[in-house]
Design brief:
The structure is a single chain. The chain is about 45% helix and about 15% strand. With about 800 residues, it is of the alpha+beta class. The strands form six sheets. A five-stranded antiparallel beta sheet has the order 7-11-8-9-10. The longest helix has 26 residues.
């Protein structure tokens, strides 16, 4: 319907209303409801006001005529809803209301939507239900509340919500429905209602005071048990799906915005309860759940995550501090990470410590009585808790000391609470090990030194951190040392029992012979490092980089998957802004290095056109990469258009441009670690290592790049992988079928001979180097190969898995692979 057509309809409606021609008016209204699919403009409100102002006898006749013609608009929801809205406006205050059941059914249908367009005036239908003495279905209340919270909400939606107080929370989320089932009675209802008032960024003294009063009425223990059980359900699948889009994001994985306020209140509430280990655990989980990515939206709800952080900062005890320290190593969302940093800094200042010392002291032992070990007695049964690599393992022995596979019945029966806490500790250890591994991996650029006794207490002999520290190399007063056979030892296995200053060992600046010797030492003692240290890639300045002077092109001209790149960058401490296919600018991916006074930049830009090369929300699927540069940390920010163009420095008032620093002036350790990060981004996120892109991706545009990357020269990471495979292959059961030649691992099968590229994992097979596509499982861990010197190289696992499969290619049953053989 055109704008002119709409105006004509409005003229007919006004004319028939003025004449009192209710039959003609009904016909015009039914026609308008059918053809105007929501695009009424201001005329819709004018019509509704006009109808409401008609005399009662005219409205009664019009009501009957509209009801009689209702089914002429067909079965589509939108025109039927328009007629019911018109009927509600006409029938208000009349003794009879036709099509009441139809109205209820239409409301129920609308109750499965996320929000409704406010111009549809669903509020009029709801008001008619309330006027008829009927309660609104909870799903309808939920959609009305969500609509009323929209940024462009009209006043009538806000006014209607003031009249609706039941149910206290929106249905559709398991945590909220469980809370309403548990929270029966006026005191519980008052507490839930109070939670929904948590609309500020932090709780006020008045909010806390009322919360404490409500807690006292119910009892702190009762509130804690209930509240923590509700928090455990937050972020779970919806109890029923919603339809429709919310600005392009996945509405069924986002929090209900009305309930999100209550979740913030719930976090604040539990922080007012007496400290308990489960409280810190639940709040930490809420922070991580709330920061999980939702397609098209980003983090699920940073406001709820921030409420969890604020709540943790208000809880006394080492458990809450430990959660904050763990989150500091895991959270990458900038605003929440900044909030965590602020609380840790404040705690450090209060105790007269540095931020780093707070993070070290905050790591709990989780009941471990020795490094990586604990023994728990449950009557006649014993639980053995042991850290094995990056995971905690729990095993059991019965009264006779015999190992048993499962938890003894007597323990389940007589020690249920202690068992629950032990299992929770195992999960906590796994989470903390992951966080501490990431923290330690970032220490190479932290320029940390420790007094020997302090280092032994916080690292080497710490019950949990010691399981990682004892698998790393350190320097004690300049002498490299590693832990083996119960002692800190030199390369010659001489014990190191004292010292003054300790630092973390790094291969930069070490003689190649020393690096190789330490690799041999780790292998001799069968030590698997938690991340690459002795085998860490070293990126030295090249002649090409000396020639360019102020920038490195080593990782330019790649095509990488944007969202994977963004996640990797955040995990490694880089800041990056997703590129949208819009008229906007963005800075490069940057990593600030305050201890060195430097800022590293990786120049990137969006690639492609809107539609095929973007998500529904308009963000680029892929990026093109360019230079790596270094600037003083306080230099003005560079930026470039999201879909290409030259980077230029934005200068504020009184600012002068700052030139990039010569690469020769960048400390070798900084250069190596930054380029290692960038190599990781390209190595993992490049479209060149996607085995399904043999055709070159969309339009075949990436064919040349895919081929050159997928089978080209090895980068530093792949060269390290090659050196390791050279030592590892002789130990494999398929050693007689494998050889390393140049960039490939050659595997001799019965059907073909296969060449697996050591960088991308892509495969060529005889004859004529025919491409073989094998898509690895997302969580591939590879075959059991015995000892490995470090953890974390997923591509190594993929290559070994493919080698094992292809060496015995007569036993392959996968039809997708067989069709290519």
């Amino acid at each position: 319907m055109t704008m002119a057509g709409t105006k004509t309809q409005l003229g007919w409606i006004r004319s028939n209303a003025a004449k009192g021609n209710m039959g003609g008016l009904a016909t015009d209204l039914l026609r308008a409801a059918l053809v105007n699919t929501g695009q009424w403009g201001s005329g819709w409100s004018e019509i509704l006001d006009l109808l409401s102002a008609l005399p009662a006898d005219q409205r009664e006749r019009l009501s009957g005529a509209l009801a009689e013609g209702y089914h002429t608009v067909g079965s589509r929801s939108e025109p039927r809803n328009h007629v019911l809205t018109l009927l509600a406006a006409v029938s208000h205050g009349l003794p009879e209301y036709p099509l009441a059941d139809e109205r209820a059914r239409q409301l129920e249908e609308l109750g499965r939507q996320n929000t409704v367009w406010y111009a549809a005036r669903m509020d009029i239908l709801a008001e008619a239900e309330l006027a008829a003495g009927r309660d609104l279905d909870p799903t309808v209340v939920a959609v009305l509340r969500r609509t009323g919270m929209d940024t462009y909400r009209p006043k009538f939606a806000v006014d209607l919500m003031k009249k609706i107080t039941e149910p206290v929370l929106n249905v559709g989320e398991e945590w909220a429905e469980q809370a309403m089932r548990d929270g029966t009675g006026p005191d519980w209802q008052a507490l839930l209602a109070h939670l929904t008032t948590a609309t500020a960024s932090k709780p006020s003294a008045k909010w806390d005071e009322q919360a404490r009063t409500l807690i006292e009425a119910l009892g702190a223990d009762r509130v804690r048990v209930a509240a923590l059980s509700w928090l455990a359900l937050a972020g779970g699948p919806r109890t029923f799906p919603l339809t429709g889009q919310a600005y392009g994001f996945d509405i069924n994985n986002a929090y209900d915005p009305y309930n999100a306020d209550a979740l913030r209140g719930l976090a604040w509430l539990v922080s007012l309860l007496p400290p308990h280990p489960d409280t810190a655990r639940a709040l930490g989980a809420l922070v991580e759940t709330s920061l999980k990515k939702v397609a098209g939206l980003g983090p699920r709800n940073p406001k709820v995550a921030n409420a969890g952080v604020i709540a943790l900062s208000r809880v006394d005890g080492e458990e809450a501090l430990a959660e904050l320290a763990r989150l500091a190593a895991r959270v990458t969302y900038k605003a929440t990470a900044k909030l965590i940093d602020g609380f840790l800094e404040a705690k450090a200042t209060a105790l007269g410590l540095t931020r780093e010392e707070i993070e070290e002291l905050a790591v709990p032992a989780y009941g471990l009585t020795d490094v990586g070990q604990a023994r728990h007695e449950f009557g006649d049964n014993t639980a053995l808790l042991e850290v094995q690599g990056s995971r905690a393992a729990l095993s059991w022995r019965n009264a006779s000391g015999k190992a048993v596979k499962s938890v003894p019945v007597a323990v389940r029966r007589d020690h249920a609470e202690e068992l629950k806490e032990l299992k929770a500790a195992v999960k906590d250890i796994d989470k903390m090990l992951s966080a501490q591994t990431e923290r330690l991996d970032r220490q190479f650029l932290a320029r940390r030194t420790w007094a020997y006794d302090t280092w032994r207490e916080r690292y080497l002999d710490h019950p949990l951190v010691g399981t990682l520290a004892r698998r790393l190399l350190w320097t004690v007063d300049g002498t490299p040392a590693g832990f083996a056979n119960g002692e800190l030892r030199t390369l010659a296995d001489a014990p190191v029992t004292s010292g003054q200053e300790v630092t973390l060992w790094h291969p930069v600046g070490r003689e190649p012979a020393e690096v190789v010797a330490w690799r041999d030492w780790l292998e001799r003692h069968e030590i698997t490092q938690p991340f690459k240290q002795a085998h860490r890639e070293v990126y030295l300045l090249t002649d090409a980089e000396r020639a360019t002077g102020t920038y490195s092109n080593r990782f330019a001209a790649h095509f990488v998957r944007q969202h994977q790149f963004n996640s990797l960058a955040a995990a490694r401490g880089w800041r990056n802004k997703l590129r949208l296919c819009v008229d906007d600018e963005a800075p490069p991916a940057t990593r600030e290095l305050p201890r060195w006074g430097l800022r590293a930049e990786y120049w990137i830009t969006g690639d492609g056109e809107y539609g095929e090369d973007t998500t529904e929300s308009g963000s680029y699927l892929r990026l093109r990469t360019d230079q790596v540069r270094f600037y003083p940390i306080g230099a003005p920010q560079n930026s470039a258009h999201c879909y290409g163009g030259e980077y230029r420095m934005w200068l504020g008032s009184g600012q002068d441009p700052v030139e990039p620093l010569p690469l020769t002036e960048i400390p070798p350790l900084v250069l190596s670690e930054v380029l290692r990060d960038v190599d990781l981004f390209v190595g993992v996120a490049s479209v060149g290592n996607d085995p399904t892109w043999q055709d070159g991706g969309p339009g075949g545009r990436f064919q040349e790049y895919w081929t050159s990357y997928g089978f080209g020269d090895l980068n530093e990471t792949a060269q390290t992988r090659r050196a390791l495979l050279d030592r590892l292959i002789p130990r494999l059961a398929i050693a007689d079928r494998c050889t390393l030649e140049g960039r490939f691992l050659h595997v001799k099968g019965e059907r073909h001979t296969y060449k697996i590229h050591l960088g991308s994992g892509n495969i060529l097979m005889s004859p004529n180097d025919q491409y073989l596509c094998i898509v690895p499982k997302s969580a591939a861990t590879g075959p059991r190969t015995g000892y490995l010197p470090f953890e974390g190289d997923r591509m190594l696992a993929v290559i070994l898995s493919k080698a094992m499969l292809l060496a015995d290619d007569l036993r392959i049953t996968d039809p997708t692979i067989l069709s290519q053989l």
